[in-house]
Specification:
504 residues, Arc Repressor Mutant, subunit A, Aspartate Aminotransferase, domain 2, 3 domains, seven-stranded mixed sheet, globular, RNA-binding, O-phosphoseryl-tRNA(Sec) selenium transferase activity, cytoplasm, tRNA binding
Length: 504
């Protein structure tokens, strides 16, 4: 309501009451004005009434919501279901135009404004998280893998002779397939074992650059966030190599925004060498539905070039989701989540260490990985290799999600490339292990319940192993009801073995 409407209302209701309502309205509008003027995430989160008012004000600026609109084109924001319209807050036109995902749509001013504000807020949060010199970014309605592909396709026009992408190995399918999909040949650089950690082989990277020739290399494709015992790549050193040889550098920062260490590596890499773009997932870093990513960088023109490579308009859903989330949290709320994640990492590490020692196992020493942990499964694998995968299936059937059990000697073919020791990021890691990660949003009760269920599963597997190794056997009359229940669970676990063997 504007001033004229409030003045008209004073004819019907006491002017004092109307003025009070007007002041309340102005408090909402003040927050909106600050957002539009500064383009930064508010320190304190908005309440739902302010958020919904803001979204409604933007939505009525789109032509599909004009009262007198007469659409005679093929795309006029028509929606058959009112439920679908409400789900999207009546933002129907999406974002961008056919030539640029960041372009303004003439008949969708509200959606265009939403897109610009979201990109501005996300840029502010990336700086807040530790990459202070980032200059440009945009939200793209694709997950991390396809967003990496978009970066590689953009570089193709700059480097027409390039055929190869140098890629320090990480056993995750989507980042590998992103290079194949873009039409390039991945050059896999095996990691080197330093203590328990798997780290970047810098000598092998530079040797391969010299062997292939810089002009024939599209880029170096490095990684920050990853499963232990692999740790983030040596970004500073890789950035220096890229700068020295004039090779672009694309960083897969999938869930690294939540880690100050990962963000610091990117900041330092850009300071001492070359990083052209870094890509991060929306769902893993901001707790929104899957389907979006952020492409960011230190050169405005290159990031704009990537956005222009996207063909056609795009869904506004990921932008809307992250905008609502950041405005709800505010920068203070997001910083609180980052702080809590660090605390949960320490708590998970301590609890997992205690449990591992109780079973004559140990927590692998991976100090350079700030998110993921790994616990050895040597005693299980020593007795029976099947017991390792059995443990994974038991955790899955007991509703433990996210934990990864990595056996020795697993083989996997991805897009025609065969990887030995798949999921362990190397051909021959010394032992089987179990992964668990402390990601944003994790609570103490999640850790406690995971440790409790893992403890129970380990006891059951040990009990089953002892039964199989006991030649004398046990009289059926001596079996307890608890054993019968565990045997039934084991049968169910066998059905789920295949489901849990490939979690990447």
């Amino acid at each position: 309501m504007n001033r004229e409407l409030f003045a008209a209302g004073e004819r019907l209701v006491s002017p004092a009451y109307v003025r009070q309502g007007c002041e309340a309205r102005r408090s909402h509008e003040h927050l909106m004005r600050l957002l539009l003027e500064k383009g930064k995430c508010p320190e304190d989160g908005w309440d739902e009434s302010t958020l919904e008012l803001f979204l409604h004000e933007l939505a009525v600026m789109d032509s599909n919501n004009f009262l007198g609109n007469c659409g005679v084109g093929e795309r006029e924001g028509r929606v058959a279901s009112a439920l679908v319209a409400r789900r999207h807050y009546r933002f129907i036109h999406g974002i961008g135009r056919s030539g640029d995902i960041s372009a303004v749509q003439p008949k969708a001013a509200g959606s265009s404004l939403l897109n610009k504000i979201t990109n501005s807020l996300v840029l502010d949060v990336i700086k807040l998280a530790g990459v202070y010199t980032v200059t440009s970014c945009f939200v793209v309605p694709m997950a991390t893998g396809m967003s990496l592909t978009l970066c590689f396709l953009t570089l193709r026009h700059r480097r027409p002779k390039a055929k190869y992408i140098i890629w320090p190995r990480i056993d995750q399918k989507s980042c590998f397939k992103s290079m194949i999909t873009a039409g390039f040949e991945p050059v896999v650089i095996e990691n080197i074992l330093e203590g328990d950690e798997l780290r970047t082989d810098l000598k092998a990277v530079e040797a391969k650059v010299q062997e292939l020739g810089p002009d024939h290399i599209l880029c170096v494709h490095s990684t920050t966030s990853c499963f232990a015992p692999r740790v983030p790549d040596r970004l500073e050193e890789l950035a220096v190599i890229c700068a020295n040889y004039g090779i672009p550098h694309i960083v897969n920062n999938a869930y690294g925004v939540q880690s100050s260490k990962c963000m610091h590596l990117i900041q330092q890499g850009a300071r001492v060498g070359r990083i052209d773009a870094f890509v991060q997932s929306l769902d893993k870093n901001f707790m929104v539905p899957v389907g979006g990513a952020i492409i960011a960088g230190f050169n405005d023109s290159f990031i704009q070039e990537i956005s222009k490579m996207y063909p056609g308009r795009a869904s506004a859903s990921p932008s809307l989701d992250v905008l609502i989330t950041l405005l709800s949290l505010g920068s203070n709320g997001y910083k609180k989540l980052l702080k809590e994640r660090k605390e949960m990492f320490s708590y998970l590490s301590n609890q997992l260490k205690k449990l591992s020692e109780a079973y004559n196992e140990r927590l692998l020493h991976t100090p350079h990985n700030p998110i993921s942990l790994a616990m050895t499964l040597k005693t299980l694998d020593k007795r029976c290799s099947k017991a390792v995968t059995q443990l994974g299936s038991m955790l899955f059937t007991r509703q433990v999600s996210g934990a990864r059990v990595v056996p020795l000697g697993s083989m996997q073919t991805v897009s025609g490339y065969t990887f030995r020791g798949f999921m362990s990021h190397t051909n021959n890691y010394p032992c089987a292990y179990l992964n668990a990660a402390s990601a944003i949003g994790m609570k103490t009760q999640d850790v406690d319940l995971f440790i409790k269920r893992l403890d129970k599963c380990l006891k059951t597997v040990r009990k089953e192993q002892n039964k199989e190794s006991d030649i004398s056997g046990v009289d059926n009359n001596d079996k307890t009801e608890d054993v019968d229940v565990e045997e039934m669970a084991l049968k169910l676990d066998n059905v789920c073995l295949d489901t849990c063997q490939d979690s990447s």
